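@channel sequence for tomorrow's demo:
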Amino acid sequence: MNNILKEQLQHKINTRTKPLGSLGKLEEIALQIGQIQNTTSPELKNPTILVFAADHGLADAGVSPFPKEVTEQMVLNFLNDGAAINVFSKQNEINLKVIDAGVDADFGNDTNLIHAKIANGTKNILESAAMTIEECKKAMKTGGEIVEEQFKSGCNIIGFGEMGIGNTSSASLIMSKITGLSVDECTGKGTGHDDEGLKRKKEILKQAFGKYQLNGDPIEILSTYGGFEIAMMTGSFLKAAELNMTIMVDGFIVTSALLVAQKINPEILNNCIYTHASNEQGHIKMLEYLNAQPILNLEMRLGEGTGAAVVYPIIKSAVNFLNQMASFEDAGVSNKD
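structure tokens (generated this afternoon):
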């Protein structure tokens, strides 16, 4: 970390025409982005959210009240500008890209979709690992390549979203294995479970968790329990940090990918801004494990990258005050002695 730059940034923040520290978390965000970009005048360029979609074999075991077909239907909804992420991205002038990471459907040659399918969904982890190590590494590499394409087109701030029926189950299992917390503590209602459904979901996940004796290797954990969308996001996190991009972290499933990625490279956490605390049980515990402070808690738990899209204007405000607000000296305003 460049301590001279940090001091210069802090001086610039402190000498804007405001009481010391009065912009609170905005000041922390400005300081962080300045350090990521290695400048006292950071810029946000071509903000982009990548939404990765994939199906999960475990969905066949009844971990979700919704059928797998909803994944395909929601991808089509994204492509038709009908989902919440479309609304918020358009509102806040964020580029939105949708990726087929492994949906159990054929989308033809739709040019609005990034076709990156590894397979038509993962395997049912009650029977075998979700994917092979080779499939997992391919998904991670593909995620990184998609991020690099956005970077080359001028993007320096990126967020990730996801869609996949059953993916809160994968996220819970990954979380439990990496954090050491019990499956019970890591498992929430996901998309629409009642109390009875949650009880059944936990029983299935405990069975899946107990089936495998893993040694803590993050790639093995990801390939055993993950989805293709989670694997692609893991590779995306790693590549975005390597390219010195600012990363907007969304909710529960996205943060499960971050749990894996930071086991591979802990330095990536320096590039992460935690946009919100999801209302999905487990996310707060994930954030605590990462020693992370979310910007907002709007009791959202939709996924899709919606938390990142909603919070982006706040991140933009942090950069704008740093660059556009007058200093005491420029404004001729007396500062305290």
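heads up for whoever presents: The CA atoms of residues 149 and 194 lie 41 Å apart.
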